[in-house]
Write a structure and sequence with these properties.
heterodimer; A: about 110 residues; seven-stranded mixed β-sheet; four-stranded antiparallel β-sheet; 11 strands; about 50% strand; B: about 130 residues; mainly beta
Amino acid sequence: AIHMTQSPSFLSASVGDRVSITCRASQPIGRELEWFQQKPGEAPTVLISASSTLEGGVSSRFVGSGSGTDFTLTINGLQAEDSAIYYCLQNYNDYTFGQGTRLEIK
Amino acid sequence: QVLLQESGPGLVKPSQSLSLSCNVSADFMTSGSFYWHWIRQPAGKTLEYIGRVSTSATSAHGSTYNPSFWGRVTILADLSKHQFSLKMNFVTAADTAVYYCAVQRVPSLPGRSFNFWGQGAKVTVSS
């Protein structure tokens, strides 16, 4: 099974900052990686698929990159509503989520 | 917008079976080919993939499962009832979680998985 290592587990940043979250796959997965945002009490919502394709309606402040084993989600110009937990998901071979990154907006 | 709605008991006793259904908005289930998934999330933890069943417009096909659950779960689809189900046997406290159903179009766009999610159903395993 493919294992996803996501870091950091917690981020604290201010409005307007830029932050990055990384995911590393235990084996190459091409670009078969998605990023999800989850707010308390809600189901996850997809932000980015295929490593860098922005989902319709998602702010262009969210940028995904990477291929193979290393992937990054960058959030530019942080806003208060970005406070959430972010997960990566590999869908190359079955489905495996990262451990999540809790983003706190100061 | 496709609606998925989980339903089932919120409390299950240890060693018994957990059964959940996911009701799908009318006509969507028979509008094409899909994967119907179950995913769970223990409180404060990450999401864990359970498995899926595939369907075409006219029939249900095979199911595949996360090896972590092999032999303990069954996922089935019933197109006539516009629903699919999860049954998990021999549950323990470790199975306490929010259970989500989700759907994926087939074929899907490259690198794209779950198109729609249900709101989640909380299941507690306790005597």
